[in-house]
Amino acid sequence: MKINTIETFRAAVPLKKPFKTALRTVETAETIVVKVTCDNGIAGWGEAPPTVVITGDSLSSIESAIHHVLKPMLVNKSLLNYEDIFQGIQSALIGNSSAKAAVDMALYDCLAQQCKLPLYQFLGGHKNEVETDYTVSVNGPEEMGEDAVSYVQQGFNVLKVKVGKDDILTDIERIREIRTRVGSKIKIRLDANQGWKSKDAIHAIRKMEALDLNIELVEQPVKAWDIEGLKQVTDAVDTPIMADESVFSPKQAFEVIKTRSADLINIKLMKSGGIYQAQIINQLAEVCGMECMVGSMIETKIGITAAAHFAASKKNITRFDFDAPLMMAKEIVEGGIHYSGRKITLPSEHGLGIRNVSLIVNKQELTS
């Protein structure tokens, strides 16, 4: 089973509503779609969205890393020697985690198809269904409250609320407005996207605790590099703290776990460089008694399907953030995961279970 070809295609899908965080505003989901074809006819799919403010990866850099570094290294290699291949992908170039992730998930798609298994079973098979939260973009308190009510009415019982923009008092007002509107039974988790300083984060979280706003967790309150500040926040508040941008690699995960700088870790394939290293991060956390969430960037159903297969396969992954395809104005993927409100069912087909991807390439529609 040799790797024959690695192709890339650009895609752009408009969002129903702008996605706003402390770091960026996204109106159109741009992505690089990867197709790996093997000599036995099996084809696997992957994806890498550009997220320059988080991963540093752009559309052009993703394409360059794949075509100039990863593709020459992988073509004509036997995929059955996949341990060497996945280690080679990680050591072939520094950074470029999104490009690595796109190729990694396409190769895992091929491997699971070869074994005639859905990918989640190939990876461990813990369960075939998960439940996603829904993200409330950072806007004015009233608009965020209206959005939160809309998502709850659609059946979502966990809201991931973006904060970290403007001042602390405004963030607190955002959460008070949402909690007042959705009631006490809906879980609210906050994501500051590195938008606070440690003292501000401690003040804000303590204030929300005093107001009994019942926050499930706070994700990445401080800058990614500020592990000491992250630990200060974790030690000073009762609310669980989750590391996100602070953890790309297993080594970074080890540092956070060793120092107990956070209570949980958010694993994203675009940060870890794919499923191979994501499994290592989860295993490190699990043996040390730390649960993980699997999240995502603004990805189409290709990348989210890969992430969901990984997340469903592992017992230690207890939280899921897979709402990005629901934000898009159209769908380019046939097959993959199935949404029923907040519930996501993994496909029973082999591999990722993606049957068809429709893209516009050089003004021609590509269907494969």
Automatic annotation (TrEMBL):
Mg(2+) binds at residues 191, 219, 244. Signal peptide: none annotated. It comes from the Bacteria. One of its GO terms (molecular function) is racemase and epimerase activity, acting on amino acids and derivatives. GO terms for biological process: peptide metabolic process. Coiled coil: none annotated. The keyword Glycoprotein does not apply. Its cofactor is Mg(2+). Binds 1 Mg(2+) ion per subunit. Residues 141-240 form the Mandelate racemase/muconate lactonizing enzyme C-terminal domain. CDD domains: L-Ala-DL-Glu_epimerase (cd03319). The active site is at 162 (proton acceptor), 268 (proton acceptor). InterPro entries: Dipeptide_epimerase (IPR034603), Enolase-like_C_sf (IPR036849), Enolase-like_N (IPR029017), Enolase_C-like (IPR029065), Mandelate_racemase_C (IPR013342), Mandelate_racemase_N_dom (IPR013341). Belongs to the mandelate racemase/muconate lactonizing enzyme family. This is Dipeptide epimerase. It comes from Cytobacillus oceanisediminis 2691.
